[in-house]
Amino acid sequence: MFKRLFVLAAVAAAIAPAHALTAGDIAIIGRINNGSPDSFAVVALTNIAAGEVIYFTDNGWTGTGFRGASATDGDGNENLTKWTVAAPVAAGTVVLSTAASFKTSGAIAGTTSGSHASLALSQSGDQIYAFQGSANNPLFNTAVQTHLYLLDDSNGFEAASSSATGGVPTGLTFGSTAVTLNFSSGGGIRVKSSVLAGPAMDKTQWLSTFAIASNWEAGTPLPTASISVVPEPESYALLLAGLAGLAFVARRRA
Known about the structure:
Radius of gyration: 19 Å
Order of helices and strands: HEEEEEEEEEEHEHEEH
Strand content: 15-25%
Strand order of the largest sheet: 6-4-3-7-8-9
Distance between the termini: 16 Å
Structural class: alpha+beta
Shape: globular
Helix content: 10-25%
């Protein structure tokens, strides 16, 4: 019986519909600002379907948009990196920005200047924004942006007026999906390995954990090991609905 339920659960999970991401579906759990290139680590806090596209920028948020972005300038005053998810990513998986699925060169669609590039993070403090947006000029088209996560290491948020400053976009929450730390110095920072190896938690609990400054440390390399993520309640609901549907079909065929 248990084996049959396990198989049904796997099938139900496989047929669950894909969905666009929402705030906190990913988190940034480490960065290196003196690398060649600079890099960062992203952890999935939900299952991510193949084909999803996520953008990352170190352009600060001014209060109405990303600093320097315009109808013709696709990378603003700083940089834009594009991650196209090539294969499904399970919740808990850690991905580095140096992976082949991150686009760090080439023109940005819908613009006449600017190109994709690795983020160049300031050693005096900077931000990394993660968001989804339009295929054309995603940095500028704020009306269709969904902000996912923000990591700041300058010890505070403010409207962007320089390459080291940035505010919190609509849709992100301070202390959860918008995290600020006081690590404005050269090198790497990361969530402590003892924290990442801890008990399984759901998305909300992990976000709260990442927002606690004492759970971070200076150092390299970036984290790569998966963490344990408990599905959110709505994921259980989808699973149960799928099981119920499969059970109904099985009874009809009996």
